[in-house]
Amino acid sequence: MKLRLIRHATLWIEYGGLTFLVDPMFSPEGANPPINGSTNERRNPLVPLPLPLESLLDPSAVLVTHTHQDHWDKAAAAALNPAMPLLCQPQDQALFEGSGFREVLPVIASAEFKGVTITRTGGRHGTGEIGQRMGPVSGFVLRAPGEPVLYITGDTIWCDEVKQALDEHRPDMTVVNAGGARFAQGDPITMDADDVTAVCRYAPYTRVAAVHMDTINHCLVTRDDLRSRLKEEGLLGQTAIPEDGDWL
């Protein structure tokens, strides 16, 4: 397996002889307004793509955890070939089909795609009323012969659903969406430093890759913040915090 952080939650994964583009957000730097209800006025994305867009347009399949704009934007919908296989949570099937994508493959529980088993996992995109308003989100576990087990948590906080996925699948690598995204009111809606620490302590057998930072204006935990906290906790050896464009 080879995994590349493109930007934010957008990943390029070489796995089982296939390539997967995860949560494509292709908007140019500053093209979009600040997130509604956030605490600052910085326009999104905060940084440009680290490589040419053309290099991201021919994966074996696209995998989308949910359809918030920082995981699936108009620029991605316009740039990607609508004949490309697209795997998603069932709740988003109609949206993709309505956008013209012709091979939408909803993962209800588990699905096979050209020799790779893809299992959908649950999560909580925040707490209380905010968590409910954020709508359904999913993570995905990838398995293939000769490959490590990969768990992509999606947009979730540390919760029972994540614990269940770790217990059931015991992944070799876990990609967490960090950044502590939050609004002016309420608790974080993605993992903050406490949550990433909790993942590492709960599952010391998994290598953790923390992404989803330094790109969207309401993600307030930076790479430097997380790195400092994990160093204090003695967990840097278990965790990768890639920069945009980095390969793991």
Biggest β-sheet, characterized?
Answer: 7 strands, mixed
Q: What is the H/E string?
A: EEEEHEHEEEHEEHEHEHE
3D shape: globular
What radius of gyration results from the CA coordinates? 17 Å
**Total helical segments:** 6
Strands, total number: 13
Q: What oligomeric arrangement do these chains adopt?
A: single chain
User: Could you give the distance between the termini?
Assistant: 9 Å
What does this structure look like?
- This protein has helices at 74-79, 93-98, 128-133, 160-169, 193-202, 223-233, and strands at 2-7, 10-15, 18-22, 61-64, 86-88, 104-106, 110-113, 116-121, 139-143, 150-152, 173-177, 207-211, 239-240.
- With 248 residues, the chain is α/β, with parallel strands linked by helices.
- It has one domain: Metallo-beta-lactamase, Chain A (4-Layer Sandwich), CATH 3.60.15.
- The strands form two sheets. Strands 7-8-9-10-11-12-13 form a seven-stranded mixed sheet. Strands 1-2-3-4-5-6 form a six-stranded mixed sheet.
- The protein is globular.
- The chain starts with a strand and ends in an 8-residue tail after the last strand.
- The model has no long low-confidence stretch (mean pLDDT 97).
